[in-house]
């Protein structure tokens, strides 16, 4: 078939092809984010996984671009390519979830079949190999989809020249321009829409856009495409799969993901920033079930022992603050630190947390589901207290507003997640701590959640050194065993000259009784093994922009998970 050489018709074809390329570029970027986001959630090392996935897909795209030269008919190849990418895009999340879940479930099935005790759960050998292979499935799909996406630009460029019937001088630039603009729009769609919906439905929407672009191309150039009937059937098959996943995919994915948790999952949800999971475990002879709260697959607290963590976080700072009128809490969107601070009868508490959806989970509301009632009971309806003001925003920015307003606080409690992301790293920097020191009354006290001194020793010590470098005269670090986490650590700082431990030792007893903590137990928490700080001189301060604490933390947990060893 010869196309009308008229410029108007050629322009029409050009608009369609460039629009298709832009749509596919947006889909390609969303596939990258989908796989990166989901892989990070199930593999645990969220941030590094995201970077590896995006890098792997970019390299694979380059390889796919080279491989596209081997395809003879660009029209037929492009039509098949889009249907295959859409099929992989709509099914990859479920396949990954199934592979990982089977790897986790298999040892339990074997143990139950042969009535093995819990301490003899089968591991190693073939089972370990299968589990490791399952955890590599996100990278496999990332590489495969990236390779196929890489073929799109060379093929669409060849299609465009075939339509014009001549070599186009600016062909590559035009196609890449559409690709970049489409990728930018895809990023906007991801942030504004996809982050807040179920990941399987996000995959379906992306695959449907991919499929629609492929169908338009298939219909428009059907005379140049071989085996058109088979291709229309393929697109119909992918559409049916997409509709099936749209209806049942969220439940399938949730059921498979729930297998990754030891306890029953009673709630799973997401905000624009993170994924939440709440688990429940019933124990004989215990009136109340145990609840676990997870963010992105990582345990944040267990109702069994969170009182230990929050007592160690809040009591030292509140005990040493001469005036306990005004308290600032950074993070702590579960309200559990607020609960413990309220026991010291402050005049006001200001809490800064990025995620409004997280705080909402722990806030009393009419007609609450039963799991939320349990959470609100756990924090004793802390957010309903009129003395508590919640500010939603990035703490790194939000403290500037407090400084500009001349606010001063008697205690600052920093209850942030571990520095497992470069964005979190800045909240563990000398610059951030120096700004927090300006918010403290002269005799005020600051305490910082400081990760595990056992699992991430260098990161723990670096946090203490960084706080000291920010202008505090006294910094002390302490630790306690939290059964759900193991050994955990905190850092406490003051501008007072008298050592912190010596000041705490002046108390004969806790000023506010606690169900677990005692005065002697608190004093003992400041003891460390004789050689614990011997490498302190070699550990760097976390300057803003250096990402030092992030590197220390990331390396420690990778070694803990056996991902690599130095």
General description of the model:
The chain is α/β, with parallel strands linked by helices and 566 residues long. The chain has three domains: 7-255, Growth Hormone, Chain: A; 264-298, no CATH class; 305-560, Rossmann fold, CATH 3.40.50. It has helices at 7-43, 46-67, 74-113, 125-135, 137-150, 152-164, 171-192, 199-220, 228-258, 306-320, 336-342, 356-361, 370-378, 395-404, 422-425, 430-439, 457-469, 500-505, 519-524, 548-560; strands at residues 264-270, 275-281, 290-295, 298-302, 326-331, 348-353, 388-392, 409-415, 440-449, 474-482, 486-494. A hairpin with a 4-residue loop joins strand 1 and strand 2. Helix 3 packs antiparallel against helix 4 (125-135), helix 3 (74-113) runs antiparallel to helix 5 and helix 3 (74-113) packs antiparallel against helix 8. The longest helix has 40 residues, at 74-113. The protein is elongated and about 90 Å long. The termini are far apart. Mean pLDDT is 87; it is low at 562-566.
């Amino acid at each position: 078939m010869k196309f009308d050489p008229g410029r108007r018709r050629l322009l029409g074809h050009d608009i369609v092809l460039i629009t298709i390329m832009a749509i596919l570029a947006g889909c390609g970027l969303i596939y990258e984010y989908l796989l990166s986001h989901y892989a990070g959630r199930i593999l645990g090392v969220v941030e590094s996984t995201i970077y590896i996935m995006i890098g792997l897909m970019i390299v694979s795209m380059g390889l796919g671009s080279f491989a596209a030269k081997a395809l003879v008919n660009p029209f037929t190849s492009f039509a098949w390519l889009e249907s295959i990418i859409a099929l992989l895009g709509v099914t990859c999340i479920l396949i990954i979830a199934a592979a990982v879940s089977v790897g986790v479930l298999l040892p339990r099935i074997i143990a139950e079949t042969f009535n093995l005790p819990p301490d003899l759960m089968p591991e190693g050998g073939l089972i370990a190999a299968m589990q490791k292979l399952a955890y590599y499935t996100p990278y496999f799909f990332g590489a495969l989809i990236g390779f196929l996406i890489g073929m799109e630009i060379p093929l669409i460029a060849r299609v465009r020249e075939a339509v014009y019937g001549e070599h186009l001088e600016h062909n590559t630039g035009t196609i890449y321009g559409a690709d970049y603009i489409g990728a930018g729009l895809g990023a906007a769609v991801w942030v504004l829409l996809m982050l807040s919906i179920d990941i399987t439905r996000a995959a379906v929407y992306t695959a449907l856009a991919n499929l629609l672009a492929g169908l338009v191309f298939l219909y428009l150039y059907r005379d140049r495409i071989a085996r058109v009937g088979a291709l229309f059937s393929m697109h119909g098959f992918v559409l049916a799969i997409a509709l099936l996943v749209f209806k049942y995919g969220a439940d399938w994915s949730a059921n498979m993901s729930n297998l990754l948790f030891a306890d029953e999952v009673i709630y799973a949800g997401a905000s624009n920033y993170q994924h939440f999971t709440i688990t429940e475990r019933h124990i004989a002879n215990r009136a109340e079930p145990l609840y676990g709260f997870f963010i992105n697959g990582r345990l944040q607290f267990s109702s069994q022992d969170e009182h230990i963590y929050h007592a160690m976080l809040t009591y030292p700072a509140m005990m040493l603050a001469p005036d306990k009128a005004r308290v600032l809490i950074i993070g702590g969107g579960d309200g559990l630190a607020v609960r413990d601070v309220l026991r010291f009868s402050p005049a006001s508490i200001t809490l800064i947390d990025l995620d409004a959806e997280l705080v909402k989970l722990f806030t009393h509301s009419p007609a609450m589901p039963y799991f939320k009632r349990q959470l609100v009971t756990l924090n004793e309806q802390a957010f309903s207290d009129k003395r508590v003001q919640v500010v939603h925003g990035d703490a790194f920015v939000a403290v500037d507003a407090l400084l500009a307003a001349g606010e001063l606080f008697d205690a600052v409690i920093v209850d942030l997640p571990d520095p497992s992301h470069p964005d979190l790293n800045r909240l563990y920097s000398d610059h951030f701590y120096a700004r927090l020191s300006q918010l403290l009354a002269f005799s005020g006290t600051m305490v910082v959640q400081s990760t595990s001194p056992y699992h991430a020793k260098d990161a723990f010590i670096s946090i203490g050194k960084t706080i000291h470098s920010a202008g505090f005269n006294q910094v002390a670090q302490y630790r306690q065993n939290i059964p759900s986490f193991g050994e955990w650590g905190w850092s406490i700082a003051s501008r007072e000259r008298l050592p912190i431990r010596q000041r705490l030792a002046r108390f004969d007893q806790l000023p506010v009784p606690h169900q677990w903590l005692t005065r002697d137990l608190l004093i003992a928490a400041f003891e460390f093994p004789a050689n614990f700080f011997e490498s302190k001189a070699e550990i760097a301060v976390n300057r803003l922009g250096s990402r030092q604490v992030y590197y220390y933390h990331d390396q420690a947990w990778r070694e803990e998970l056996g991902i690599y060893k130095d």
